[in-house]
Design a protein that fits this description.
The protein is of the alpha/beta class and 543 residues long. The protein has four domains: 153 residues, Domain of unknown function (DUF4445) (Nucleotidyltransferase, domain 5), CATH 3.30.420; 169 residues, Nucleotidyltransferase, domain 5, CATH 3.30.420.40; 96 residues, no CATH class; 66 residues, Alpha-Beta Plaits. 31% of the residues lie in helices and 25% in strands. It is built from 17 helices and 27 strands. Helix 1 packs across helix 2. The radius of gyration is 23 Å and the shape is globular. The model has no long low-confidence stretch (mean pLDDT 93).
Length: 543
């Protein structure tokens, strides 16, 4: 009999098959993108509200089913499933109300006649959500702490062990939607930062998620930059030595010719090394063509620099907001915990250099994918679900809504000025003082860094890792007034659209994983007859 552990992240989905008798991992499968259009949780919510929760639910379930087929197990023998993720992803998985997450405040709940679900721990049947496994298999869904603090935040708190520790700890699950917790002697302050997809290697011209072929680190050597590339086992391996201003190869490494793109940790590394060597002088890249070259045709642009800066700015503004809310200084933090693939593979020293974690960190723990890890724990020990509910009920905490936080607003504005306009850090700190906040802490002279595992998913299983590089789910639009002009197809920045003739009419077909969603809508805006209506798209057949 088998169990399945599922992590539904904002940038992608990961699934593991477990042998319930031996408790061993059988195999692992991951996507490189999320099936819903858009780049963050706000985009996903907007899509679900405007196009339909049922459509969003089906896109997620169909993607999970595609991953399950890659595991090469007898799916009829699946007995237990556990799924983890943020409140939006878990609600769409269960096909329950999400509008309470999209709108905020009692007036909105009343105006839209919304009754927020409790989002407590629950057990449902696999057949009820459309999983193509034994329909009677139990699906365990862990609780959120509050409706806005999800099971993924609980996972990072539980797996890091900070709730049992004395002192002050900062825990961040780095991703497109970063979960951040400041824990002071068991009291929890949390926030969720919609940092954008650059930290996951997306919205980066040559970017990709952490998967085989991803450049995950860059280091300065005497005669160039040495890349590090993830191999087929998701282990970091030596890449080429490159001249960053030209891309000329100085020395070939074992991963030469195998790089497919750069992931978020590689982006952080490029920023840190570029700024330390003077090749990045904010807000510009100081090369002739404003690019930094890595191996195998992968490069980093000024636009990538801006996108990465937005993400780092959101993290740092979130950290400062929590500290101000709790009435402490960042210098008081004992340990910084880094969760998620981006928090695991990144060089923690480089993270401190660019501001991804506080520069004053004296101890850094890199703990891997806590969301998938907790799902695995629940599959192997279902009784854990009740303990998690009790823990969620007992957590003393305060959630800070960054969207309404004056501290975050002021600090994030400074971050944008720093990354996009090159504001000197001295002026940045002067503004912090004027606002009544402490200046940015100085770099710690001594830091203890510990990476708990060899990779963010500690065990891949005997069947190894399978990557679903193209999800292959579509959205379709049959609009009576569509003339097949192709304007929408030509305008799409992600090349996600095709126009197909159907008899004497035309059909719009969109690869949902490539689409930027409601934050873009260029396709709709360029339609000459205003026939294209994004909100009326329906889920298409898998391709």
């Amino acid at each position: 009999m088998y169990g399945l552990a599922i992590d539904i992240g904002t940038s992608g989905i990961r699934v593991q098959a477990l042998d319930l008798d031996t408790k061993e991992v059988v195999g692992t499968a991951i996507t490189l993108r999320h099936p819903l259009p858009g780049a963050n949780v706000i985009d996903h919510l907007h899509f679900a509200v405007e196009v339909g929760e049922e459509v969003a639910h089906k896109l997620i379930i169909d993607t999970i089913n595609s991953l399950l087929r890659l595991l090469e197990i007898d799916l009829s023998k699946v007995e237990r499933v556990a799924v983890d993720g943020n409140p939006t992803q878990l609600s769409l998985f269960q096909n329950i109300e999400v509008r309470d997450l999209a709108y905020w405040g009692e007036h909105a709940m009343h105006d839209f006649n919304i009754t927020p679900p409790e989002r407590n721990a629950c057990v449902i049947k696999a057949g009820s959500v459309g999983l193509e496994v034994n329909p009677e298999a139990d699906v365990y869904v862990p609780p959120g702490v509050k409706h806005e603090i999800g099971a993924d935040a609980l996972a990072m708190l539980v797996k890091s062990g900070v709730l049992e520790k004395r002192g002050i700890s900062l825990v961040t699950d780095f991703g497109t939607n970063a979960e951040i917790a400041l824990v002071i002697d068991g009291e929890v302050y949390t926030c969720s930062a919609a940092a954008g997809p650059a930290i996951e290697g997306q919205r980066i011209e040559k970017g990709m998620l952490a998967s085989p072929g991803a450049i995950c680190d860059v280091n300065q050597e005497s005669n160039g930059w040495r890349t590090t590339v993830l191999n087929e086992q998701l282990l970091a391996d030596k890449g080429d030595l490159i001249l960053p201003h030209s891309g000329e190869v100085v020395d070939n490494g074992p991963m030469s010719g195998k790089a497919l793109g750069i992931t978020g940790t590689g982006v952080i590394a490029v920023l840190a090394v570029g700024m330390n060597t003077g090749l990045i002088k904010l807000p510009n890249i100081a090369t002739q063509d404003r690019k930094l070259y890595l191996q195998d045709g992968i490069y980093f642009t000024r636009r990538d620099l801006v996108e990465a800066g937005k993400a780092i700015g959101a993290f740092r503004a979130g950290h400062i907001s929590l500290c101000e809310e709790a009435g402490i200084s960042m210098m008081d933090i004992d340990t910084s915990y880094m969760a998620g693939a981006s928090g695991f593979y990144v060089d923690a020293n480089k993270s401190m250099d660019v501001g991804q974690i506080p520069a004053c960190s004296r101890r850094v723990m890199q703990i891997g994918n806590t969301s998938l890890g907790m799902a695995k724990d629940i599959v192997l020990n279902p009784e854990m679900l009740d303990k998690l509910q009790s823990m969620a009920d007992s957590i003393r905490g305060k959630h800070i809504m960054l969207a309404t936080s004056k501290v975050f607003e002021k600090v994030y504005t400074l971050e944008l000025s720093y990354w996009e306009e090159g504001m000197p850090i001295t002026i940045y700190n002067e503004y912090l003082r004027r606002y009544g906040f402490e200046p940015l802490p100085k770099r710690s002279s001594s830091v203890e860094i510990k990476r708990i595992f060899m990779r963010d998913i500690p065990e891949l299983g005997k069947k190894g890792l399978k990557v679903l590089r193209e999800i292959g789910v579509t959205l379709v639009g049959d609009f009576d007034e569509c003339t097949g002009c192709g304007n929408c197809m030509a305008e799409c920045p992600e090349k996600a659209i095709t126009v197909e003739p159907v008899g004497d009419k035309f059909r719009i077909v969109i690869k949902s994983e490539l689409c930027n969603g409601m934050a873009c809508l260029r396709c709709q805006q360029v339609c000459p007859n205003q026939a294209f209506k994004f909100s009326e798209l329906l889920k298409g057949k898998a391709i």
